[in-house]
Design brief:
Layout lengths: L11 H9 L15 E5 L5 H10 L3 E5 L10 E4 L4 H10 L3 H9 L3 E5 L1 H6 E4 L10 E6 L10 E5 L9 E5 L4 E5 L4 E6 L2 E7 L2 E4 L10 H10 L31
Parallel strand pairs: 1-2, 1-3, 3-4, 4-12, 5-6
Antiparallel strand pairs: 6-9, 7-8, 10-11, 11-12
The structure holds glutamine.
The site of glutamine has 11 residues, from helix 5.
Length: about 250
């Protein structure tokens, strides 16, 4: 964890920390206020997640070693390439610590490759996954890179209209276990789901300015069963805005 380390502007990680958290007062506002999140930073688009969650008022840190998991309320597994990410998780001795983090009640949010890593298993039987949510993922299910696409996808529990979803060599969820809540489907396939404190999505909200699913994760971290999250005004992005609060949540 980089908290307390001196900031070096010659160090990309330190520079991002400095850019994201220059003003401690800002962290007192927004749905993420008071929460500390880790973003698995071995590979993939972890910086985009940090920017989005910091905009919602959470503090974020990059996770590369088991010790980085200490003190986190939630963990983000970003998009990227799941075979590579899986190898790096093993190489960094993170496989068991990540499972232990979840078993101890830590919330987890996986996007795209992160969905694959969080899944119980894959149709293909590889790579080794963490088994944090009872779903089976199919990798590259919508086709290869050239078949990447964007679509407006309605998502349960989000008010304010569909999400503009970016699918990049995206998986879909082929099987959901009994306790899994399906949050979104596209072309008849499950593309977002939640079980307990684990939220997974096949597309990339972190590459857009729509922070509603990130906000739903913040409520998931708090253990709140929020019926509806987001602003009624879908046109207004919620990042960095104090309007980004749940409209109906007694627990937060
Ligand atoms: N297709 C990738 C994989 O299997 C995931 C793509 C992504 O994260 N955008 O890991």
């Amino acid at each position: 964890m980089s908290d307390g380390e001196p900031v070096s502007l010659n160090n990309a990680r330190g520079r991002l920390d400095w850019i994201l958290s220059p003003d401690p007062m800002r962290l007192a506002a927004g749905p993420g206020a008071g929460l500390t999140l880790g973003v698995l930073a071995l590979q993939g688009d972890f910086r985009e997640h940090r920017v989005m969650f910091e905009g919602l008022g959470a503090r974020t840190f990059e996770v590369r070693r088991p010790g980085d998991l200490a003190g986190l309320d939630g963990l983000v597994i970003p998009g990227g390439e799941s075979t590579t990410m899986s190898k790096l998780i093993v190489a960094n001795d993170l496989f068991r610590p990540l499972r232990a983090f979840h078993a101890a009640g830590g919330a987890v949010y996986g996007t795209c490759a992160g969905l694959i890593m969080a899944a119980r298993d894959t149709v293909e039987g590889a790579p080794p996954t963490l088994g944090l949510i009872d779903v089976t993922a199919r990798r590259n299910a919508f086709g290869r890179q050239v078949h990447s696409f964007e679509a407006d996808v309605p998502v349960a529990r989000l008010s304010g209209g569909p999400m503009h979803a970016v699918f990049i060599r995206a998986p879909w969820i082929e099987r959901v276990g009994e306790g899994v809540e399906v949050l979104a489907t596209w072309e008849g396939q499950v593309v977002a789901a939640r079980e307990g404190r684990v939220l997974v999505v096949a597309f990339h909200p972190e590459l857009t300015d729509d922070a509603r699913l990130h906000e739903l994760f913040l409520h998931t971290v708090r253990g709140a069963d929020c019926p509806v999250v987001g602003s009624e005004d879908a046109a207004a992005p919620s990042v960095g805005s104090s309007r980004a609060v749940a409209t109906a949540c007694a627990n937060c």
